[in-house]
Design goal:
Blueprint (H helix, E strand, L loop, with lengths): L9 H5 L8 E2 L2 E2 L1 E2 L10 H13 L10 H20 L8 E4 L2 H16 L5 E5 L8 H10 L2 E5 L9 H7 L4 E7 L11 H10 L3 E5 L11 H4 L3 E5 L10 E5 L1 H6 L10 E4 L4 E3 L13 H17 L1 H19 L5 E4 L10 E6 L4 H9 L3 E2 L1 E3 L4 H6 L5 E5 L6 H17 L3
Parallel strand pairs: 3-15, 5-6, 5-7, 7-8, 8-9
Antiparallel strand pairs: 1-2, 4-10, 9-10, 11-12, 13-14, 14-17, 16-17
Bound molecules: 4'-deoxy-4'-aminopyridoxal-5'-phosphate.
C-alpha cells in the first residue's frame, strides 16, 4: 500500500467544482475522464457569466466602455497564458478553439508555405489523430512524405529510431508531449535540440501536458506548442498556439477575414501584426477570458503540486489496478514519467461494456480508440478503457473504480 501523503488536498479542491457535488444514477459522480475534457471550477464558470452579464461586446472594435473592458480582459488572458507557459511575449500567443485548430494552423500556414516534394514530416506512433490528419492533408498537397517514429513495447518513444529517421530531409517533427493513451511523457527538450541540429523545427502537442505539468516553452526549445483550454479547467472552445515570433511573422495567414488585416482593397490585402494576423473574425472571447481565469486558478494551486498529486494518484491506480485478474495495462512508463492516464482492458470484456457498467456506478471513464487508431493497431487492440485523473481526483475514487471493475469482471462472467 502507498502511504497517503497527498501534497494537495483534493477534498478541498473538489469544493471548487460544482459538478462534482452532483449524483448520477443515485451515486456520487466520480469523474475519471479529464483527458477528454476537465471539469470547470466555479471561478471559471463565474468569469464567463460575468462577461455576458456585465461587459459582453466585441474586442478590438468598439470605442465604448464595455468594448474596452472586453478587449482588456481578452488581452489580459493572453498575458496570463504567455506567463503560464513562459512564452517570451504575448505576441507569440494565438487564441484558437483548441489543440486541433492550433495544429491545423501550423500545418496549413507553415506547411503549405514551406514543404515541398522530397521533404519529410516526422510524427510518432503515439500521436492523436489531430497530430496526424492535418499533416496528411498537407503532405498530399505539397508532396512531402510522412515518416513515423515507432514506440517500444513499454510504450516509450524509440529514441534510436528517432535519431535514425531524423535526416536533413525532415523539415518538421510533430510530437505529443504526453500520450493521451499511454500517459508517456516524451523527452521533448531532447527531441527539439536533436531536430534543430538537422535544421528541422518542432511542434509539440501539449493537449495532455499543459493541464498537468509545469510548462516552459523556452526551456523545451520548441518552435510551436499547442494546447486545449478545456482540458485545463477552461471553457470549451478555448485553446492556444504558441509560436516562435520570427516563424509566426514569416508565415502567411491561416484564415482570412475581419481583424487579421491592416488594409483591404479588391486588389491586395495587407495583414495585421502578431498575433492578430492569425485571429480572423470574432474570437471566442468569453472562452479566452475564462481560460485566463483557469490559468490563475491552476497557478494559485501550483502546477508542481498538481503534478505531485497526479504522480501519487497514478502510482496508486497502477498498484490497485494490477490486483484485477486478467487486466492488461498499456504502457509501462513509471509514474514519474507519465501523466495521469491509465489505459487498460480486462480479458475479453469490451471496453464499451466496461464503461457502461461503470456509469451505472456513477463512474465516468472513456472507452474506444481515443483518436489514436495507429497506436491501437500497434498494441493489436480495437479499443481500450481509459481512466484519467486530475487535481480533483482522490485515492478513494480509484478504490471505487477498482471495486466496480471487480464487479464488472464477475458480471461479465470471466
Ligand atoms: N492531442 C492530444 C494528445 C489530445 O489528447 C487531444 C484531445 N483528446 C487533442 C490533441 C485534440 O484536442 P482538442 O479536441 O481540444 O482540439
Amino acid at each position: 500500500m502507498l502511504v497517503k501523503t497527498m501534497v494537495l488536498n483534493a477534498e478541498v479542491v473538489r469544493k471548487d467544482f460544482p459538478i462534482l457535488q452532483r449524483t448520477v444514477h443515485g451515486k456520487r459522480l466520480i469523474y475519471l475522464d479529464s483527458a477528454a475534457t476537465s471539469q470547470k471550477p466555479k471561478c471559471v464558470i463565474d468569469a464567463e457569466r460575468e462577461f455576458y452579464e456585465r461587459y459582453n461586446a466585441n474586442v478590438h472594435r468598439g470605442a465604448y466602455l464595455i468594448a474596452e473592458e472586453a478587449t482588456s480582459a481578452y488581452e489580459a488572458a493572453r498575458e496570463k497564458i504567455a506567463k503560464f507557459i513562459n512564452a517570451p511575449s504575448k505576441d507569440c500567443i494565438v487564441f484558437t478553439r483548441g489543440t486541433t485548430e492550433a495544429i491545423n494552423l501550423v500545418a496549413y500556414s507553415w506547411g503549405w508555405a514551406n514543404l515541398r516534394e522530397g521533404d519529410e514530416i516526422l510524427l510518432t506512433e503515439m500521436e492523436h489523430h489531430s497530430n496526424i490528419v492535418p499533416w496528411q492533408l498537407i503532405a498530399q498537397r505539397t508532396g512531402a512524405k510522412i515518416k513515423v517514429v515507432p514506440i517500444t513495447d513499454d510504450g516509450l518513444l524509440d529514441l534510436d529510431e528517432f535519431e535514425r529517421l531524423l535526416t536533413e530531409r525532415v523539415k518538421i517533427v510533430a510530437v505529443t508531449h504526453v500520450s493521451n493513451v499511454l500517459g508517456t511523457i516524451n523527452p521533448v527538450q531532447e527531441i527539439c535540440s536533436k531536430a534543430h541540429e538537422v535544421g528541422a523545427i518542432v511542434l509539440v502537442d501539449g493537449a495532455q501536458a499543459a493541464p498537468h505539468l509545469p510548462i516552459d516553452v523556452q526551456a523545451i526549445g520548441c518552435d510551436f506548442y499547442a494546447l486545449s483550454g478545456h482540458k485545463m479547467c477552461g471553457p470549451t472552445g478555448s485553446g492556444v498556439l504558441y509560436g516562435r515570433k520570427d516563424l509566426l511573422e514569416s508565415m502567411p495567414p491561416f484564415l482570412g477575414g475581419g481583424e487579421m488585416i491592416r488594409t483591404v482593397t479588391f486588389e491586395k490585402t495587407t495583414f495585421n501584426d502578431l498575433p492578430y494576423k492569425f485571429e480572423a473574425g470574432t474570437p471566442p472571447i468569453a472562452q479566452a477570458i475564462g481560460l485566463g481565469v483557469a490559468v490563475d486558478y491552476l497557478t494559485k494551486i501550483g502546477m508542481g503540486r498538481i503534478r505531485a498529486h497526479e504522480i501519487e494518484l497514478v502510482a496508486y491506480a497502477l498498484e490497485r489496478l494490477k490486483e484485477i485478474d486478467g487486466i492488461t495495462i498499456y504502457g509501462f512508463a513509471p509514474p514519474e514519467q507519465r501523466g495521469g492516464v491509465v489505459a487498460f482492458n480486462i480479458g475479453e470484456i469490451h471496453p464499451h461494456d466496461l464503461a457502461t457498467f461503470l456509469d451505472a456506478h456513477g463512474i465516468c471513464i472513456r472507452a474506444g480508440h481515443h483518436c489514436a487508431q495507429p497506436l491501437m493497431r500497434r498494441f493489436d487492440v480495437a479499443a481500450t478503457a481509459r481512466a484519467s485523473f486530475y487535481l480533483y481526483n482522490t485515492q478513494e475514487e480509484i478504490d471505487a473504480l477498482v471495486e466496480a471493475l471487480e464487479k464488472a469482471e464477475k458480471f461479465f462472467g470471466r
